[in-house]
Amino acid sequence: MNNKTSMQGHPNGLMTLFFSEMWERVCYYGMRVLLTLYLVKSLMKGDADAAIIYGAYTGLVYAAPIIGGKLADKFLGYRNAVMLGAILMAIGEFLILGGTEQFLMIGMGALIVGNGYFKANISTIVGKLYEDGDPRRDSGFTIFYIGINIGALLATTVIAYVGETYGFKYGFGLAGLGMLLGLIIFWTGRKNYAAAEGLGFTEEGNQKVFGVLKKAHLVGLLSLLLIPVAYFLILQNSWLDYILLGLFLLISFVLIKAGLDADSKEKVKIWRDRMIALLIFMVINITFWACFEQAGTSLTLFADRNVDRSIFGWEMPASMTQFFNPFFIIVFGSIFSVMWVKLAKIGKNPSIPMKFAFGILQLALGFLVTNIGLQFVNEAYQVPLITLVVLYLLHTTGELFLSPIGLSMVTKLSPKNIAGTAMGAWFLSFAIANYVGGKIAALTGGHSDSGVALTASEGLDKYISIFSTIGFVLIGISLLIMLLNKPLKKLMHGVV
């Protein structure tokens, strides 16, 4: 591949894609960081309703790349899909400025469809900058991942602060401007990544329908119809119970069948077992992220009501407490990547099941830290801010045990001919997790079962009680995974 190189010998296009993705993450996380508080404080939604809407939205956001990737592969090409996604996401943010529930729902619909096109395909372009077997690929994706977390850090500091201090509309507006900046960088730097394959319309995408319109143009127009579909599914979110369960059962069937279609008895056993292992890890992944994603819902409302956020006379906005996660990712990410290499060299690298178990254990301990914070509660029934700092620290180290390992594991466990399907299945587990996370958050709200608002004291007790329950359940799940370490390793047939 004829690719000019930039810093550290990586292809020139990497930094263009780095900054495009960084600003897209500013847009996405900028909206997400404010969403629950906007629903509760501006649109006067109850905690449970806000949590379910948040869960349905983020669940659909993670499901959308499955469709966005397929349509780019078949019709649009990767560059065009990213462009369309960026435009839709910017429009979505600006629609929210209408200030009503209807504008919010339509805006979220546009953001869901836009994210489906953008998120699925910009990573694909990064991969296509490198030849198969290029040793720089992992390092390139690590640099790209840093861009994602810098974007998340900007969103959870600058946009969170502006949105809560000066008004939600300014936060959403800034997020939209961030997406426009990402779009401009992506378009003006297109020559830098031009060597990547599959950027333009595919052969089928160039075919005309009725001799007038290219199929790719028709797909782009028809995808706009997905916006009202997303609007409907957010409002009628109970439908997602059946849709996501149905998709999980369908993908399970597809993966197992792919394993059974191998060309020899020995390979059938190996690939069947690996697909079963992948499905088990998907369930574990759902468990982890359903609890981790309390950050945007119950933990933000907890921070707003029951955390003393004063720092030398300045009060940190509640949404801004979400910045601890991307901050710790940036601090510890490279340390962890070096740690795995060093542990592997001395033969002490934990197995994939054990890494998942340790990740869930740290997530559990993070929730249980709130019990320690309860011992230092002030007269306003608020725990110290350090409670959330330690909670997010443990959640982030847990994430680093599980998230990058999971993505790498999927590529190792799946046969090449269904690698895309397997990755789509992995994204589906995130979609289900976010939706389930909304349902969990709905249990933690600041209202009693009869709908009466709780006092600060009652609300604090309810939050700590549910966080503790989550923590103890996660400890049980972690121990179960540890017990299943050997059977899971056997199913994986040598994948480490």
Number of helices: 18
Number of strands: 6
Order of helices and strands: HHHHHHHEEHHHHHEEEHHEHHHH
| Proportion of residues in helical segments | over 70%
For the largest beta sheet, what order do the strands appear in spatially? 1-2
Shape, per Cα inertia axes: globular
- Biggest beta sheet summary: 2 strands, antiparallel
What's the end-to-end separation, in Å?
Answer: 30 Å
Extract low-pLDDT stretches.
Answer: none
Give the mean pLDDT.
Answer: 92
* Secondary structural class: mainly alpha
What fraction of the residues are assigned to beta strands by DSSP?
Answer: under 5%
Task: Round the Cα radius of gyration to an integer and report it.
Answer: 22 Å
Task: Provide a descriptive summary of the structure in words.
The strands form three sheets. This protein has a two-stranded antiparallel sheet with strand order 1-2. A two-stranded parallel sheet has the order 3-6. The chain has 18 helices and six strands. Helix 1 packs antiparallel against helix 2 and helix 1 runs antiparallel to helix 4. It has 496 residues and is mainly α. It is globular. Strand 1 and strand 2 form a beta hairpin. The mean pLDDT is 92.
Characteristics:
mainly alpha, 496 residues, two-stranded antiparallel sheet, 75% helix, two-stranded parallel sheet
In short:
The protein is globular and about 70 Å long. By secondary structure, it is an all-alpha fold. Helix content is 75%, strand content 2%.
